[in-house]
Every structure is written in structure tokens, then in C-alpha cells.
Amino acid sequence: MQKMLHINPDKCTGCLQCEMACSFENYGVYATAKSRIKVFDFHHTGKKVPYTCTQCDEAWCLHACPVEAITVDKLTGAKVVNETTCVGCKVCTIACPFGTINYVAETGKVQKCDLCGGEPACADACPTGAITFIDANWTGLSKMQQWADKLGNQPSAA
To answer: Where in the numbering of this chain does the 4Fe-4S ferredoxin-type domain appear (predicted)?
Structure first.
């Protein structure tokens, strides 16, 4: 069963625990600048939205890489950057329409979410459940439930 990160921005408080957990998991330091997930702060609305690689089925980053440094992890389905193969050309950063692959100047390579090998630190660290790791087939379930509540799950007038 493939799983994926599911993000519910309505539950995000902007605490940055996901960013801290990600940076610690991948670099051994608590530094939001090194995180592979970012929490965007929309000041005009007060909303906070966690955002990271969506692990696209048709991954443009993977197809764009001229040295095949991005491969699919057979266990998790994550598109993973092999740092020893990556030449830092940044073609994948251009190919990604969501801007979730980042160039790291210190290493001269790119980084992106790799789902932490199947145990995403960001989801484990999120205190509100804004980030969860769920069955990939059910990512729309909460939206379906919300629509069902609006349309047909109301008390009857009888």
C-alpha cells in the first residue's frame, strides 16, 4: 500500500515543528532553512500552509534530470535525489511546477522530500494533525466527507 503526505491547512498553526523535524531528520540540526517542507504564511489572510513535494505520479523532475539522479523508491514511491549522482545543474528545479525542489549552495546539489524512507518526520512532529501520512488512495476522503455533510448528512425535517 502506497502512502502519501496529506496536508490540511485548516489545522496548521504555523508552529514550524514540521520544518524543525525535517531539518533534524535530514541534517541533524534544528534549522528551518534546511527543511524540505516549508510553512507559508499568508499574512493577508492569517493562514499558514505546509508545503512540500507531492511525489507526482508523472514526476517532471525525474524525467528532466539529465544524469538520472532522481529515482523512484520502490518501497515508498517517493522520488529520491541521489546526491552522489546529482551534478547540481538545477534542471529539475525548473521542471517542477510546484517549486518543491531546492538547490543547496553548501553542497552544490538539490534536495526534495523523500518521505523519510516511509516514516515522515514532519507528520510525526505535527501536533495538530495538519500533516498526516495516509493511504494514497484516500487523500480526498475528508473533502468527500465535508461535501456529504453539506449536501446530505443533515438532520431530516420529518
So the answer is: 3-32, 44-75, 77-106, 111-136
Q: How far is CA 32 from the centre of its chain?
A: 15
Domain boundaries along the sequence of the chain: 1-53+113-153, 58-111
pLDDT tens-digit profile, the chain (158 residues):
789 999 999 999 999 999 999 999 999 999 999 999 999 999 999 899 999 999 998 999 999 999 999 999 999 999 999 999 999 999 999 999 999 999 999 999 999 999 999 999 999 999 999 999 998 776 666 666 666 777 665 565 55
- pTM for the whole thing? 0.83
Please give the CATH number for the structural domain made up of 1-53+113-153.
3.30.70.20
Q: Which CATH number fits domain 58-111: 3.30.470.30, 2.30.140.10, 3.30.70.20, 3.30.70.2330?
A: 3.30.70.20
